[in-house]
Amino acid sequence: MTTRTLAVVSAGLSQPSSTRMLADKLAAATAARLAEDGVEVKIVTVELRDVATDVMNNMLTGFPSPRLDAVIESVTGADGLIAVTPIFTTSYSGLFKTFFDVLDNTSLTDMPVLIGATAGTARHSLALDYAIRPMFTYLHAVVAPTSVFAASEDWGSGADTVKTLPNRIDRAAGELAALVLRSDRSSLVRDPFTLDPSFNPTGGFQAS
């Protein structure tokens, strides 16, 4: 059976967290879709709150701690990524953005990505399209067409009879699974000595 690794990044701050809940549901749905195609999925979940200090120190010093380095490798080396953030002040959380700021800007090239967000009200749902999606597009990731936003009421009885949260999750998971199946990232190797046009090491990906 073919095996793929799915990295799940959750920027929730509380515990338990609705952001983590959404991330887990997206991961489970994607794994189920891939299993239908005979693909075994290894899910690696990263709670950014657990490495928040490491992320900030990396911003200040330019060097990741061993713990953060392991997290970065697990995310950038995955076959697909699910990234979910709470919405603060109409955009992604500072911790979410800072984590992706410390990644090499070529390390997510061609990465299949499913984005999600949570907030108290659906008024913040557009942040997925005007803030989060452009960030991953800048990083040259391949972002699934459907993004998933969950407001507080989405965790209730599901009064939205047109597009309930489970329906949105299932659709997005199907899109990510298809992207992972078509992706050839597993045939790429990480080369820390790759040079960008300014001749600085980028740690980008090159074909083996």
Class based on secondary structure composition and strand pairing: alpha/beta
- Extended strand count: 9
Q: Architecture, CATH level 2?
A: 3-Layer(aba) Sandwich
Strand content: 15-25%
Gap from first CA to last CA: 23 Å
Contiguous helical run count: 6
Q: What is the share of helical residues?
A: 25-40%
Domains, number: 1
Net shape: globular
Structure summarized in a few sentences:
With 208 residues, the protein is an alpha/beta fold. 38% of the residues lie in helices and 24% in strands. The protein has one domain (2-207): Rossmann fold (3-Layer(aba) Sandwich), CATH 3.40.50.
Descriptive notes:
- The chain has 208 residues and is of the alpha/beta class.
- Helix content is 38%, strand content 24%.
- 38% of the residues are buried.
- The chain has one domain: Flavodoxin domain (Rossmann fold).
- Strands 1, 2, 3, 4, 5, 6 and 7 form a seven-stranded mixed β-sheet that branches. A two-stranded antiparallel ribbon has the order 8-9.
- It is built from six helices and nine strands; from the N terminus they run E-H-E-H-H-E-E-H-E-H-E-E-H-E-E.
- It comes from Leifsonia kafniensis.
